[in-house]
Design brief:
With 317 residues, this protein is an alpha/beta fold. It has helices at residues 17-33, 47-56, 82-90, 101-115, 129-135, 172-185, 199-211, 227-238, 274-286; strands at residues 6-11, 37-40, 58-61, 72-75, 94-97, 119-123, 142-145, 162-166, 217-221, 243-247, 263-268, 291-296. Helices cover 35% and strands 18% of the residues. The strands form three sheets. The protein has a five-stranded parallel sheet with strand order 10-9-11-1-12, with helices on both faces. Strands 3-2-4-5 form a four-stranded parallel sheet, with helices on both faces. The longest helix is centred in the first third of the chain and has 17 residues, at 17-33.
């Protein structure tokens, strides 16, 4: 008898607290002020989310100078540099800052270590919006290291006053390889006061690690510009999945990927709404993958309050 086809569904997956807050911030701003509401960069790195909010009247721009004076602009979950806040103020823009609180924490660490005159090594991906925002907090103190191989280029003033920080959406394993290389070069390297890689990024990677060895194929739902989604494909392949692909929508799945496959792992990045995962589950069912089993490695309960500009006014009792 043919082996039954099954889907292993990773849990946790999908929206994290920071994404949930950022998307809701744009929705609430539209409800409160009406369209258009401007958003600097993609609110989160997900095609479906951006298209859905555009349909409701959000206008996505690259820079604040594209926003009409005095209009409302939302800053994305990835955070912005002080320079962006300054240019927004110059144009009298009404800003709603939807930066993820975990990114804000890294900004505060950068400012503190810069004040104490440390050289800061920021582990992250060149050109990523989050890295640009964090670097902007203390550009004269921060240098970017994009992976272990970039460590050789790092130069510091005082090897006793060096600290590493990181982008929140990196691969935990690769980041620790980079830290190891940095520590070999700078034995007195300081660690951040608390882990910079966000809980959701770590949890999604742990769930994929748990299921990957049992999977012929791992499908990650997420956009190509989503750092944490791209990392999940890498983690799946590094931990035993025979193949792994990133898709925005179920329709992007090539049926030939399923040839000879009995177990498909399925997960989604931290900026992906669950409706897109359900679409993949439905498509897999059409190909005989009817047995869906959840692989749970953590429970997530964290939530973040909305940006203060959007919180309901307190009424007197």
């Amino acid at each position: 008898m043919a082996e039954s086809k099954r889907v292993l569904l990773a849990s946790p997956r999908g929206y994290c607290a920071g994404v949930d807050r950022a998307v809701e911030a744009v929705e609430r701003a539209l409800d409160k002020h009406g369209a258009p509401v401007y958003v600097r960069k993609e609110i989160v790195h997900n095609r479906h989310v951006v298209e859905t909010l555009s349909d409701r009247g959000a206008i996505f721009v690259n820079e604040t100078d594209e926003v009409p004076e005095s209009a409302i602009v939302v800053f994305s979950a990835h955070g912005v540099s002080p320079e962006v806040h300054r240019t927004a103020a110059e144009r009298s823009l009404q800003t709603i800052d939807a930066t993820c609180p975990l990114v804000t924490k890294v900004h505060q660490e950068a400012k503190r270590f810069a004040r104490d005159d440390y050289d800061i090594v920021l582990i992250g991906h060149e050109g990523h919006e989050e890295v640009e925002g964090t670097s902007g907090e203390a550009p004269e103190h921060i240098q970017l290291v994009d992976g272990p191989d970039a460590v050789d280029q790092v130069q510091v003033r005082d090897p006793e006053r060096v600290v590493w920080l990181s982008q929140t959406t990196l691969s935990v394993d690769e980041t620790m390889q980079t830290v190891k290389r940095l520590r070999e070069k700078f034995p007195l390297l300081n660690d951040p006061p608390s882990d910079d890689i966000c809980y959701a990024t770590q949890n999604r990677q742990v769930a994929v690690k748990a299921m990957a060895p049992k999977c012929d194929l791992v499908i990650v739902v997420g956009s190509k510009n989503s750092s944490n989604s791209v990392r999940l494909v890498e983690v799946a392949l590094q931990n035993g999945a025979k193949s792994s692909y990133l898709v925005d929508y179920a329709r992007e799945i090539d049926p030939t990927w399923l040839d000879g496959v009995t177990t498909v792992g399925l997960t989604s990045g931290a900026s992906v709404p669950e409706v897109l995962v359900r679409g993949v589950v439905d498509l897999l069912a059409e190909h005989g993958f009817n047995d869906v089993e959840t692989v749970t490695t953590a429970e997530e309960t964290l939530t973040f309050a909305l940006p203060r500009e959007l919180r309901p006014a307190r009424t007197a009792n």
